[in-house]
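Sequence in, structure out. Go.
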Amino acid sequence: MVIDYFPLKTGTRLEYKYKSTEFDGIAKIYIDILDVAKKPGKITARAQMTFILRDTHETEYKITKDKKWVITADGIIIGGRKEFPLPPREGVKWDEHPDANAIVSMSDKLAIKAGKFTKCMKVVSSLAGGDAGKSVRYYAPNVGYILEEYSGEDKNCEVELVSVGKIPEKPKKK
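Output:
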């Protein structure tokens, strides 16, 4: 059975807490999968990221999965990136200039606010080849992106999954 480390299902809401040296406090972030389109060899999802701190910002972006990659067009810490190649395998490396990335484990165990996870994939990114810091991120089977610790020249951040649920229905206008 193939393990899906980045499931895309319409109506899914992922809630994260986000700490960064760029601001005071802890931000709440929602990633909502608004809809998913499937074509032979490619899945495209329309996602909405809602960032809540003192005010609220919403941005919409695409997530694509094809036979070779999972690619996000935006993200919490940095803009879009190649999340990981498909199928994911320990030891796989790729460059996304100027960063060097590698899947270093497929068997990590994590206990975070959202729960306990096993068989997690660990991706390490050496920012600017390691000169500018590093990022360590984890993906849980059938859940997706659950934790990232980012330590760069410009900022230090942590993103942690708090819960997975459904996008709440908007109240009907009377």
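Check: The two ends are 48 Å apart (CA to CA). The chain has a mean pLDDT of 95.
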